[in-house]
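TL;DR need structure tokens for one chain.
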Amino acid sequence: MPENHDITIRGRLLAPDGSVVTCPVCDASTQLTVYGPDGGAGRLMCPDGHHFAPPAPIDPVDLLARAVADPRTEFLG
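>> reply
TL;DR here they are.
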């Protein structure tokens, strides 16, 4: 069974074009959480609890893999 990840991104998440990723419901742009199963597609959640897919052209599998591999990621628990 794959491990599930739940990683809060400190600061802002940038799209490849340099734009800031925001929640489509409330426009939150900081403290977004990327979550999903190891090796799978990541989804995003804002601090208010709205869940959404990463906007194109961000690859959701790559997004989660990069968050897991980032040496600044702190795994709790």
